[in-house]
Amino acid sequence: MKKNAGFTLIELVVTIAIAAVMMTAVSTVILLGMNNNRVINQTITTQNDSRVITELLQTLTSRGTITGVVKLGNNYVIQGAGEGDDAEPVPLLTYSAADRALKSSDGRTFMENVQSFDAYLGDKNDVSVDEDGMKHSSLLTLVIEADGKTYERSIYCRTQEFVGKTTSITLSNEGDIPVEIESETITSVDKTEPLPNVNLNDLSWDETKTQRIEFLKLLATQYGSTGKIQYGDGTDTGVSFAAWYSNGAWSDDTPWCACFVSWAAYFAGQVDLIGEVPEFASVPVGIDYFKSSTSAGTWKESNPDPGDYIFFNFNQSDSVPDHVGVVLFTYTENGENRVATIEGNTSGYVGMRSYPLSSTSIVGYGVLDWKTP
After folding, report:
1. Using CA atoms, how far apart are residues 120 and 70, in angstroms rounded to an integer?
2. What pTM, to 2 d.p., does this model score?
3. Alpha carbons 369 and 358: distance in angstroms, whole number
4. Residue 161 φ/ψ, nearest 5 degrees
């Protein structure tokens, strides 16, 4: 039997060599793993940053605050309207080529390691620039290159200017005291004239007339709200539509167009205007409800009636609907068929709008489960 007296010199050298090779292999695997994690995390961060920026800009554009894009060398400034009628435009988001960073007006960095950035208002194939370098249109397009990836997105830019409140819409049933809501003069790609004076009681209706008018009257009580539920006298309750929908879990900055119509539908159900109540905070979820064969609501592509939900996709670069309102009425003006709406979170408040019925931004209409006598 061989006596175990330890390693010979040759065995020791071989053992050390094998250990060294194994350590090198293990280190390589660890380093590769760390590098892959770094790349993955960096990519995820870049994608998240890009999503945050586009969501930020979508929020800004939905409020109608973006007024133009200015290019200064390789730097960009996305401008918004200042406070007051004569206020100068203010910077909302800037891109510094030297810093390779996107920053907000208060200096907060949204995204770093941006190799290139482009932003413009207008269609790619028809971009016009005025003498001040400003570009105006209905689309804001961003092209961001970071970490070897390119992110491009176009966002609908709703830059309406509210000149005055000139027209009233009368919502009433036979013998009721009329409820009037004023409509804005809208200067935008959608509408350049005030809405017509209309008494919904004079329109042709089916057996759901009373329920539909009462639903519109409920919506009208919130006209002018900036996101907070209003009492009948127009004062805020202090509770936002988003907080109401989420039982206080969501902040007041949460997009709330769908929360607004869900609030109205809930109370319409409480007073038996409708049977099944659709409640949703996501616009695509709302469309799925009306298209579902198991729901009491129905979906249609054309011929909207007062009280129908109207769904939009203002971001033409994707197929995801992003806004919802309620139809007030349809009408014809200068030979064009149009639809008037009341919407939440349109330029940041509950307002009235008008669109061509042929607008490609209109996805379709949802018909509520109206109760009939």
Report:
1. 8
2. 0.60
3. 26
4. -115, 125
29-33, 97-101, 230-234, 293-297 — which is least confidently predicted? 29-33
DSSP secondary structure, 1-38, as one string: --------HHHHHHHHHHHHHHHHHHHHHHHHHHHHHH
| Residue 28: burial class (beta carbons within 10 Å; 0-12, 13-18, 19+) | exposed
pLDDT at 158 over 80: no
Work out the end-to-end distance of the chain between its first and last CA atoms, rounded to an integer number of angstroms.
106
Residue 18: phi and psi, rounded to 5, are -60, -45
Q: Are strands 139-146 and 349-356 parallel, antiparallel or unpaired?
A: unpaired
Instruction: Give the tokens for residue 248.
Output: 């206080």
State pLDDT tens for residues 71-119. 888 888 888 766 666 677 788 888 988 888 888 777 778 788 888 888 8
Assigned token pair, 277: 């109540």
For 269-314, strand residue ranges (E) read 298-300, 309-312
Q: Treating both helix axes as pointing N-terminal to C-terminal, what angle do 257-270 and 209-220 enclose, rounded to 10 degrees?
A: 130
- Could you count the other beta carbons within 10 Å of the beta carbon of residue 340? 22
Q: Who's near 78: CB < 8 A, 6+ residues apart?
A: 57, 66, 68, 69, 91, 92, 93, 94, 119, 140
* DSSP 8-state assignment for residue 200: G
DSSP-assigned beta bridge partners for residue 80 = 66, 90
Residue 318 backbone class (left: φ over 0; alpha: ψ -120 to 50; beta: rest): beta
